[in-house]
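Title: Prediction job returns without error message
Component: structure pipeline
Severity: low
Priority: P3
Assignee: unassigned

Description:
Job completed but the reporter wants confirmation the result is attached to the right record. Sequence as submitted:
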Amino acid sequence: MTAVRATTASAPKPKGGFRFTPSVLIWPALLYLILTTQVPFFMTIYYSFFRYNLVEPDRRPFIGFANYAGLLSDPNNLRVLLNSMVLTAGTLVLTLLFGGGLALLLNRAFVGRALVRSLLMSSFLVMPLVTAVLFKNMLLNPLFGFASWLVIKLGGTPIDFLSNYAMGTIIGMVTWEWTPFAMLILLTGLQSLPDDQIEAARLDGASPWQEFQYVVLPHWTQALQVVILLETINVLQVFGEIYATTSGGPGVATTNLPYFIYQKAFAEYNIGVASAAGVITVVLTNILAVFLLKMISKNVSSGGH
């Protein structure tokens, strides 16, 4: 025992200086992430302070916050911001309702449940542009779409949904894409609910609505917040569905922030205004994300106590 202690005490100590640690392994990935995300973002901030149009690339006068002031003072631009909020809020409400209902259905045992779950998940795997083409040409076309054929068979008059109900149609398309995501997250949360809680509620004489209100819904709180956080960030970035169907119209009825940035940068070549709009979009998205993350962390900490 004494010899072991002596050997341990006499062992040479590591020399001072630089030592490789496991954290060094993430440095290349971190550097790549900085170069591909932060550098373009800071360049966007830089261009937002200039009157920079590609029609006159040599003229680039510094104008300070004039691009931001112009964006926030134009009523049409405020309509674009409102469109983004309406699209996000409408999609969130519908995906939570449909996703929650499907999660409750799939939580029950029935023949072919695995197949039904796989089929319901398929729409989430379809690319946005493919979804837009599918709805525009195959389902909602006023001449040969499935909806028009069904309306004619029922004795009605076909409706051009993309012209008369443009924003509602876009919300429907995005809801069709994101409902499986909400369903999967809520189903995962539902399957973690202990069976004894449901059995205790039923033994106490709780009705199905009371069972949902006082047992299922509180257990769903964290899953709902995760769905709201991730969907908010992604729906604010919707572009392909609008680009391939309405092109932001009629007028600016379906123009959201990403499509507005596309118009300014690639149709009007106004890089300064497009950069300012991009910065505003990032700031708004981060404000919403921080707010929702605080809600989630508060819920987790209160649940831990």
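Comment from assignee: result matches the submitted record. The mean pLDDT is 85.
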